[in-house]
Amino acid sequence: MAQTVQHSVGSTNLADLLERVLDKGIVIAGDIQIKLVEVELLSIQIRLVVCSVEKAKELGLDWWNRKPAESQAQEGRLLAAPLERIEERLAKLEHELAQRPLNQG
Q: Would you list the domain boundaries of the chain?
């Protein structure tokens, strides 16, 4: 007497997987730095968010709904902090250079 074996395997097709990813969202992040003799030549920060439009709105990532002036203002706020740090470092270096005596030869 032959017996049949049934396998119960939970399978997920591509459509179900895509629906789940878009519903929940997924974030992929990575940093790439290229250095030569302890001198950083290149630094790349990659941030990728994959989600549905509804989820993006829920997370506040609805840049396509904002007016260009609002987007530019937000970008300006994001760039202000690093620029302030650069200006502070530059002022400190200029002060240190001004304190050094000139080398007369």
A: 14-65, 66-100
